[in-house]
Amino acid sequence: MVSRQDRIQLIKSESERLIKYLGSISADAWTLPSACGLWEVRDVAAHLVMVADLYGDTVSRGIQGDSSPTDGFPASGSLDPASFDDLIAEKAIAIRKSEGDSLLDRLGSTWERFNLLLGSIGPEDWGKPCYHIPAVFPAERFVLNAVQELAIHEWDMRSQIEPGAPVSSATLPTLMERIPRRFGPTPGYDRFLMDSENITAVRYRFQVTGGVSGQWDIIVEEQRARMEETIISSADVTFQCDTSTFVMLMYKRLVLDQLLDDGRISVQGHPDMVAAFNSWLKGE
C-alpha cells in the first residue's frame, strides 16, 4: 500500500507535470474531444480546476470542524448518479467559460494551493470528516481521490492528443486500491449496476501483470457487483491483461470487446458469460 506522504508527493508531481504538458500543446488541441463523455480537452482541464477548488475548500473547513456543503453544492448524498454527473459537467463548463484564456493559469494556481494545504495538515486531522458530494469522508480520502482525478483525467485529455498514451505508471498502485470503491454502495460512486437480476453469482477473475500484478475477482449477482482479491481457486471466466489495461477498463475508458479483438486482453470461459460481462460493463 502506498503511504499517505508518498501520495501527497505524487499529487504534487503529477499536477505539476500535467500543467507543464498542457502548457506545451497547441491551441487547437484544447478544443479536441476528450475521452470523457462529451467534454473537450479544455472542459476536462476546467473540471480539474473545480476538483482542486472543491477539495481545497472542503478539506480546509473539515479539519476545522465544518463538514457542511461547499457553497453552490448540494447536501452530501442527495444526488443520484445521473444528477451527480450533470452537476459535475455544469460546474466544469461554467469554469471553462468564465476563465477563457486564463484556464491554464487558474489550473496551476488552484492545484498549487491544494498541494500547500495537503502539506500543512497535521497527523491528528486526517480522520476528521469533510464534505463531499456523494458522502462525508475523512480528510484522508481526498488524497486518494486527488490521485485518481489527476491520473484518469490526464489520460482523458492526453489519449486524444497522443493516441496510445498510457495512464501514468506512478499512479497505478493508488488506482488499483481505488477501483473496488467504484462498486459502491456510496451514492454517486456506484458505477457498476446491472439492469436485470442474476441470482446465481458469477465470478470473473482478472489475472493482472505488470505495474501492480495479482489476481482479483469481480462477483456479479442481484443487480450489483463487488471486487475482491482472489481467495478461492475456481472462477467462471478468467481474463489476463496488464495493469494499465485493467485500470482503464474498470474506469470505463476502454471497451472489453475491442480489447479482446486487439489481443490486449485474453480470456478463458464460456462465451455467453463473456458477452454478458461485456454488456454489463457498458451498462446495456
Question: What is the topology?
Answer:
Elements: H1 4-22, H2 41-62, H3 81-99, H4 103-120, E1 129-130, E2 137-138, H5 139-161, H6 172-178, E3 202-209, E4 214-221, E5 224-229, E6 237-242, H7 243-250, H8 256-262, E7 266-269, H9 271-282
Helix pairs in contact: 1-4, 1-5, 2-3, 2-4, 2-5
What does this 3D model show about the protein?
- This protein is α+β, with helices and mostly antiparallel strands and 284 residues long.
- The chain folds into two domains: 4-183, Four Helix Bundle (Hemerythrin (Met), subunit A) (Up-down Bundle), CATH 1.20.120.450; 202-282, SCP2 sterol-binding domain (Nonspecific Lipid-transfer Protein, Chain A), CATH 3.30.1050.10.
- It is built from nine helices and seven strands, in the order ααααββααββββααβα.
- The protein has helices spanning 4-22, 41-62, 81-99, 103-120, 139-161, 172-178, 243-250, 256-262, 271-282, and strands at 129-130, 137-138, 202-209, 214-221, 224-229, 237-242, 266-269.
- The strands form two sheets. The protein has a five-stranded mixed sheet.
- A hairpin with a 4-residue loop joins strand 3 (202-209) and strand 4.
- The radius of gyration is 19 Å and the shape is globular.
- The protein starts with a helix and ends with a helix.
- 35% of the residues are buried.
Structural class: alpha+beta
Superfamily (CATH H level) name of the largest domain: dinb family like domain
Percent of residues in helices comes to: 40-55%
Give me the count of strands. 7
CATH architectural group of the largest domain:
Up-down Bundle
Beta-strand percent range: 5-15%
Series of secondary-structure elements, N-terminal to C-terminal: HHHHEEHHEEEEHHEH
CATH topology of the largest domain: Four Helix Bundle (Hemerythrin (Met), subunit A)
Largest sheet: 5 strands, mixed
Poorly predicted ranges: none
Count of helical stretches? 9
Using the alpha-carbon principal axes, give the shape.
Answer: globular
- What is the terminal separation in angstroms? 34 Å
| CATH class placement of the largest domain | Mainly Alpha
Number of domains: 2
Note the quaternary state here. Answer: single chain
Gyration radius (Cα, Å) is 19 Å
Mean pLDDT: 91
